[in-house]
Specification:
The chain is an alpha/beta fold. It has helices spanning about 55-60, 85-100, 110-120, 145-155, 160-175, 180-190, 190-200, 210-220, 225-235, 240-250, 265-275, 290-295, 295-310; strands spanning about 5, 10-20, 20-30, 40, 65-70, 105-110, 125-135, 255-260, 280-285. Strands 1-2-3-5-4-6-7-8-9 form a 9-stranded mixed sheet, with helices on both faces. The chain is globular, with a radius of gyration of 18 Å. The N and C termini lie far apart (about 40 Å). Residues about 1-10 and about 150-160 have low confidence and may be disordered.
Length: about 300
């Protein structure tokens, strides 16, 4: 059994679940409450259950809390597959039905938000509610998703000429679909100093960027198969559009926006979500791309009150 350590040094036991022949890592804390749904925390691109450590310890007194490593990330297996929202949707749905055993509130950041939306929209039997924190995923108007567009932003200089920007952007995209280029880029971005530099771009509170956080992102990137997962992100076609998913959604929705996120224009993206799902609750927070890690007390408080409220 492995252990995930919270900031308070309180160990949270982790364990593995077999899914389609692959090891899936998850942590569980808190006790089941008859009148309250469980909470399932789903990380973003390159992150893991470790990224939720402040939220697990902050919520487990009131809820049964689970956090899971998506297939291809964290301590979960990294087989050579076509990684997509559909794959992670199926993984999360099966985890809720077979391990949690009751409807859960899915809480997803970035890529994990998109995967959670896929579950809540297309597998309504599993979702008691949905909480999205700076969620990824394209709308039909070809609005870019922050992942992997954010990777491109790190290597593509800003240009004043819009047409030239688009042309060079298309060239860069084509170039990084080539296997050798993908390999070289992966070797570059997985270095600890690059991870730290990226975090400094997307975190408003730089004090939240600790050596522990950098190590938690770096460690899985060294696993066998990590490059295949990374490569798949570039080659797999985009999944269902966010607006199409929102049209299928029936459960309560809470949006928590880190307003200082350079990858996501929170106010503009908020309008898109409201256009297709007006009956939502949202809060704008003084944080970057990962508000759950930057302002965990605020996120935990809003999340707790909202989940308790949807059961009333």
């Amino acid at each position: 059994m492995q252990v995930t350590t919270a900031p308070s040094s309180t160990p949270i036991p982790g364990q593995f679940w077999q899914w389609r022949g692959h090891n899936i890592y998850y942590v569980k804390a808190g006790e089941k409450h008859p009148q309250r749904p469980a909470i399932l925390l789903v990380h973003g691109f390159g992150a893991s259950t470790d990224h939720w450590r402040k939220n697990i310890t902050g919520l487990c007194d009131d809820f049964e809390v689970f956090a899971i490593d998506l297939l291809g990330f964290g301590r979960s297996a990294k087989p050579k597959l076509e990684y997509s929202g559909n794959l992670w949707r199926d993984q999360l749905h099966d985890f809720i039905t077979k391990v949690i055993g009751q409807k859960a509130v899915l809480v997803g950041n970035s890529l994990g938000g998109y995967a959670s939306l896929c579950v809540a929209a297309q597998c309504s039997d599993a979702a008691a509610g949905l909480v999205l924190l700076n969620s990824a995923g394209p709308f039909s108007e070809n609005q870019p998703s922050p992942e992997p567009e954010a990777l491109q932003a790190q290597i593509e200089p800003p240009l004043a000429n819009e047409q030239l920007q688009k042309l060079l952007g298309d060239i860069v995209k084509w170039f990084f679909q080539q296997p050798l280029a993908q390999f070289l880029l992966f070797q570059y971005i997985k270095q600890k100093w690059v991870i730290r530099q990226t975090l400094e771009k997307v975190y408003l509170d730089k004090t939240a960027i600790t050596d522990q956080l950098v190590e938690e992102i770096y460690r899985p990137a060294c696993d066998t198969g990590a490059f295949d997962v990374f490569s798949s992100v570039f080659s797999t076609p985009q999944g269902e559009k966010v607006d199409a998913l929102l049209k299928q959604l029936t459960c309560p929705l809470l949006m928590l926006w880190g307003e200082a996120d350079p990858w996501v224009n929170a106010r503009e993206r908020s309008k898109k979500f409201r256009q297709y799902y007006p009956d939502l609750t949202e809060h704008f927070l003084t944080a970057g791309h990962c508000p759950h890690d930057e302002v965990p007390s605020r996120v935990n408080s809003l999340l707790r009150d909202w989940v308790l409220g949807i059961g009333d």
